[in-house]
Amino acid sequence: MKTTTYLTVLIAIMFLFTGSQAMSSEKSLYDRIGGEKKARAIVSDIWDNHSKNPIVKDRFAKSNPDYVKQRVFEIFAAATGATDVSYDGLDMKSAHAGMNISEMEFNAVVDDVLAACVSNGVPQQEVNEVLAILWSVRKDIVNSNILTDTLVGSNDAPMTKSHEQNNDSVGRDAHYCLTSHEC
Questions:
Q1: Sorting pLDDT into bands at 50, 70 and 90, what band is 170?
Q2: How does residue 25 score in pLDDT terms, banded at 50, 70 and 90?
Q3: Buried-most residue among 98, 127, 138, 141 (CB within 10 A)?
Q4: Considering the domain boundaries, does residue 9 fall inside one?
Q5: Domain CATH number, residue 35
Q6: Count of the separate structural domains present in the chain
Q7: Please, which residues have CB within 8 angstroms of residue 160's CB and are 6 or more apart in sequence?
């Protein structure tokens, strides 16, 4: 798969923060999280979490980590209110068009983002705001034609049992879809 495909997924998840206004009128969410140093640490941990997560790791396997982390930092910073950082990439719907991201994958990414926030000491109120932002763009990311029933397989060979809703009598394996992009 192309590096841009993996990058798009990671960027898209972080782009979920775009348009978010901080709950506090005094400080942006970015500042309340801890500014650049903390945002970069969170982004690095998100990358690490995705790389180990059996549900989404194949989406990121061939990406350039340094490039992805920098772009995700830009998205995260700009979307959470940093005034000196901007992001001019694709919107969520465009970035995820044709990627066939399942509900299970989306949830796994949300879990990875939240775990990174918690491991970096982000206060619960700010974690809740991040969660709300993530869920606000779910409909632009998840392919609603893919239903994921269960996760099966070993730690080394994750598989999902997935079926398309469009009268396709032959359900397609999500691992196949992830690696072939033919779903």
A1: very low
A2: low
A3: 141
A4: yes
A5: 1.10.490.10
A6: 1
A7: 55, 102, 104, 148, 149, 150, 151, 152, 173, 174, 175
**What's the rounded Cα separation, in Å, for the pair 78 and 125?**
19
Give start and end residues of each alpha helix (H) in 17-166: 29-33, 35-52, 57-60, 65-79, 92-96, 103-119, 124-136, 138-141
pLDDT at 150: 52
pLDDT score recorded for residue 28: 94
Q: Which helix (H) or strand (E) holds 146?
A: strand 146-153
Q: Return the amino acid letter for 125.
A: Q
SS3 147: strand
- State how far the Cα of 47 lies from the Cα of 68, in Å rounded to an integer: 8
Answer yes or no: is pLDDT of 18 > 70. no
| Six-digit token string for 147 | 């239903």
- Residue 159 placed within a domain: no
Q: Of the candidates 160, 108, 164, which has an alpha carbon nearest to the alpha carbon of residue 138?
A: 108
Predicted confidence at residue 87, as pLDDT, reads: 87
Is there a domain that residue 170 lies in?
A: no
DSSP, residue by residue, 105-119? HHHHHHHHHHHHHHH
pTM exceeding 0.85: no
Say what the pLDDT of residue 53 is. 97
**Residue 66 in tokens:** 């340094």
